């Protein structure tokens, strides 16, 4: 049948030229579209040819027809999925039927007078993977249109889609409301992958290319161009694969799949045929891409969707080869919001990170590569935004709100204003957080515990040097040996004690064995090599102990100077507040110190007389109790009064709710294990500290053993993320 179709005889090239001429002429858009449907109908020997375009409302409207009743033009409207035309739009691929009225989706529209037509072929007008309308041909007789006819009509549809959306036609009043691209404000709900807020301009990761020239002047030359580019692409991918000799598992599979696709005959043939029919190589890539997107984009099977991702990447690479722009890095606007279906681990490296302000993804998960990388780079990211890429165009203004896990597309001015205010508050809190940072507690005893024998001066110096190098100028607080209690050394004779936690441990041992403590201080001074140094003594229980320990530091500085070695540029010596006795002697202690740090693990153990390592004691007492929090408040107040820097360490500082209570008490330096940093940071950024402080005072007056519930309620009331 195809052979008898006008298209097969005259070829799509000549038809495409006629269409182009019809569209290029002067006159109203309506007249041009009427001419186009007439030309197609004649060329395809079809009794009916109609164009439906999508209105902003989402409805498909009959815009031009040859064969149906002219009164139906601009009257017949269909919802996506309604009738066969709506169905074509919904599925995004051709619908080819021999007996249309018998199809379950058929919707009868009396005004069109279409009753006698049986054969029906509809193809979507695709632009950037999005259907902007539908092109239909119909014949009276029952028949199936041939493969080539379907193929030809798709090419015509693609050219038509580009022409309808060209700025020249858009300016015309008749096409004003046609939804070439969505333009209304929209709000999509997704999932938070990386916290933060951003406002900027949409940059499509898989950018739909609108080729400058759709029709080639010389098909044979174009075919050669395509072949050269495809060959270059294939060898590039082969090389990538060869260069990955050591690569195994998933990463290798990803590359290998690329390779298979690049060499895939079906893909190559599709491109060649499109070029032979008169398209430029770039337009051929776009046509094959649109078709894949429309077909695979619907697939629920995650494997198939992944393959689409591979194909997208391949198409992009091929376009780069065609433009000779093989190593190009995408130029970004200053406030770019990257829009993608999903991102691979290396994808973000293609972009200038200083300009990338946010990321919106249609799929993915917080644990995906994209989520992990976005968090690592501190770029706000919202994912799982269904329908995202269909609703946003390159250059659209967009908002990334990872606090509410939403994306605002083309937001109204009031939304942008409110967001900017929130961004400002966030920036202030971020600055506060910079102060509220971990100063880096280094527990020196671990080196001693894992060694076979007592580490010598050189070994200690070497380790401390490494720690300081790694900190790269960030302050590190070295805590002198906190041995004894539950931390025993296999190579050191220790007497058995009935109550080791209350026994010969920490600074007590250091003061009784000055050689050990002095060697450690000497190693620290040496490792500092004239830089800043912070030393802290654990489990100080009386001011005399601190005074004695500090004297050792002074002696060691003098010793170094005497030998011509540099003293630290600045030396801060602090005490850990872990023994409750100090709470009643802070007035004497604090002036002697450069800083203090509250060791909440030990302080709670001694306050409640409950072994911190005994599981039966674990839930018996709550640090979120008036007793414990008043003790902490006493320390905070005394430090504030004397201007003594104070930090809080121990497990408490790394848990968001407990950290919230600490912040509410007025502490602004927390030291925590790495796992706590993310959640606590989020808590701090969402916390109005003044309001927290004002409200917590009353809770401390409570008469219960635990005020955890009350603190939780307060956090919720203040919208704090705990
Ligand atoms: C503490 O006691 O809170 C502390 C930080 O030190 P450690 O857990 O090492 O005793
Ligand atoms: Mg301790």
Please give a structural write-up.
The chain has 722 residues and is of the alpha/beta class. The chain has five domains: 12-175, 2-Layer Sandwich (Beta-Lactamase); 186-207 and 329-425, Phosphohistidine domain (Glucose Oxidase, domain 1, 3-Layer(bba) Sandwich), CATH 3.50.30.10; 219-323, Orthogonal Bundle (Enzyme I, Chain A, domain 2), CATH 1.10.274.10; 439-577, TIM Barrel, CATH 3.20.20; 599-722, TIM Barrel, CATH 3.20.20.60. Helix content is 45%, strand content 15%. The strands form three sheets. An eight-stranded mixed sheet has the order 7-14-13-9-10-11-12-8. The protein has a six-stranded antiparallel sheet with strand order 3-2-1-6-5-4, with helices on both faces. A six-stranded parallel sheet has the order 15-16-17-18-19-20. Strand 13 (397-401) and strand 14 form a beta hairpin. Helix 9 (281-296) runs antiparallel to helix 10 and helix 22 packs across helix 23 (674-685). The radius of gyration is 36 Å and the shape is elongated. The relative contact order is 0.06. The protein binds phosphoenolpyruvate and magnesium ion (MG). Residues 443, 482, 578, 599-602, 649-650 line the site of phosphoenolpyruvate.
List the helices and strands and how they pair.
Layout lengths: L5 H19 L4 H15 L4 E7 L5 E7 L10 E2 L4 H9 L3 E3 L21 E9 L2 E10 L7 H19 L1 H4 L15 E4 L1 E4 L2 E8 L14 H24 L6 H14 L2 H12 L4 H16 L5 H22 L12 E5 L15 E6 L7 H9 L3 E3 L4 H4 L5 E5 L4 E4 L3 H23 L5 E3 L1 H6 L6 H15 L5 E3 L27 H6 L1 H15 L3 E9 L2 H20 L7 E8 L8 H4 L5 E5 H8 L18 H17 L3 E4 L6 H10 L8 H12 L3 H12 L7 H10 L5
Parallel strand pairs: 9-10, 10-11, 11-12, 15-16, 16-17, 17-18, 18-19, 19-20
Antiparallel strand pairs: 1-2, 1-6, 2-3, 4-5, 5-6, 7-14, 8-12, 9-13, 13-14
Helix pairs in contact: 1-2, 1-4, 6-7, 6-8, 6-10, 7-10, 8-9, 9-10, 15-17, 17-18, 22-23, 22-24, 24-25
The structure holds phosphoenolpyruvate and magnesium ion.
